[in-house]
Amino acid sequence: MTDSHTLVAERVSLGYGDRTVVDGLDLTVPPGRITAVVGANACGKSTLLRALSRLLAPSQGQVVLDGKAVHTQPTKAVARTMGLLPQSPLAPEGIAVADLVARGRSPHQRMLSRWAVADEQAVQEALELTGTSDLVDRAVDELSGGQRQRVWIAMALAQQTDILLLDEPTTYLDICHQIEVLDLLTDLNRTRGTTIVMVLHDLNLAARYADHLVAMCGGRLLAGGRPEDVLTAATVEKVFGLRSQVVADPVSGKPMVLPIGRHHALQPVTHA
């Protein structure tokens, strides 16, 4: 794996029909780092990921992969460099886990080519990393939500791309499996140099695991940079309309958001 790939959104506007969702957004994804995208519902996070992955063409601007507009590049060539796990992926009815994860190898297959040892190794490694090896003979639609999510992540890992885009990869997972998945993505980043961009709802997990944090608001990039610089009480209030207190996470040292509800008064932070 290499961190030499570049991915940039240049003045990108995106929408569906006459409805604009993302308006004139500029974003440079730091290569070889973990970027987390946060923001309120319907602010354009998932739409941005779809554009970065070539699934959605901008109405204005362009997404540039390695110096070339991504929509001008061959589909398989892009898929060998960049993988996407969408928010709500759909599996063919009755497909087995082993067959679904194996589909992650399709960008590497050529016409009339045979299944190679490298393909088998990639699938087995992805299953082991996600703890889904014991599910290979099960039908995907028979699994729990958390099991399905880990299987989809396994398929994305089997693709073995240098850039990995994940839209809410911790959806349906309990807190233990959330941490396992985020630790796994961190391992991929550190050992292989995989560039990771993920949309997360949990601000504290986003701040803990990201090198680079992007806050979106109303289809625009409100702030981007180190979690310590982006995740402030002012940003949280502007993005989510929520009063909060931001303190240092006692585990990671990264910023941690403490929401302030209507029935709670703001208390000064005390240190033992």
In brief:
This protein is an alpha/beta fold and 272 residues long.
What would you say this structure looks like, in words?
This protein has 272 residues and is α/β, with parallel strands linked by helices. The chain has a single domain, classed as P-loop containing nucleotide triphosphate hydrolases (Rossmann fold, 3-Layer(aba) Sandwich). 31% of the residues lie in helices and 26% in strands. It contains nine helices and twelve strands. Strands 6-7-8-3-9-10 form a six-stranded mixed β-sheet, with helices on both faces. A four-stranded antiparallel β-sheet has the order 2-1-4-5, covered by helices on one side. A hairpin with a 2-residue loop joins strand 1 and strand 2. It is globular and about 60 Å long. The N and C termini lie far apart (44 Å).
* Biggest sheet features: 6 strands, mixed
Give me the CATH architecture, please: 3-Layer(aba) Sandwich
Anisotropy-based shape: globular
Helices and strands: which structural class?
A: alpha/beta
The total strand number stands at 12
CATH topology: Rossmann fold
Task: Please report which band the strand proportion falls in: under 5%, 5-15%, 15-25%, 25-35%, 35-45% or over 45%.
Answer: 25-35%
Oligomer: single chain
Order of helices and strands: EEEHEEHEHHHEHEHEEHHEE
The gyration radius over C-alpha positions equals 19 Å
Query: How far do the termini sit from each other?
Result: 44 Å
CATH class: Alpha Beta
The number of helical segments is: 9
Helix content: 25-40%
- CATH level-four homologous superfamily name: P-loop containing nucleotide triphosphate hydrolases
The count of domains is: 1
Uncertain segments: none
Provide the residue-averaged pLDDT: 92
